[in-house]
Amino acid sequence: MPLTERFQAALVHAAELHAQQQRKTTGAPYVAHLLGVASLVLEHGGDEDQAIAALLHDAVEDQGGRDTLGEIQISFGRRVAELVEGCSEIWQPPKPPWKERKDAFLARLADASPEAKLIVAADKLHNVRSLLADHVVLGSAIWEHFHGGREGTVWYHRAVLKLVQDHIPRPLAGMLASAIEDLAQIAAEDGRE
Description:
Number of domains: 1
Number of strands: 0
Radius of gyration: 16 Å
């Protein structure tokens, strides 16, 4: 199924929303992450609405809260807005403490649709792959960029995997599981330094 002008509009919208945002560790333009997540969603059977939601999955959390969610619904439809909402940890600032925020998201993720779980899995896979690549350059200093530290970051990704693995395509589940175990291994090695 070819992508339509809606996807192109979402790509432009995502690039505009996140224009000033960079990745935590490398400073790469944030849109690189959004493109990576959308790519994984499409490669694993997601439809255009899911790909659009993948492009916009951090918009509510990082760029305007509920107002942004309303704009997404007007521009891209109710289903896209529901998918974005299902992928968002928070909707309004200020952000709660890290563990509280992660626990609340995991509780919502347990009841999320398989369509939203696909996007979340793609997001986490892209994040873990990026973290692994950044670790090659930064070494154990990488953990300073994450509120959960080594142990919390591994715990959180394992918890997400447990909730999504039976609801997403098996190849994606396998890649996510493998990446998380690689992450756990480097976290353990860094802990022994």
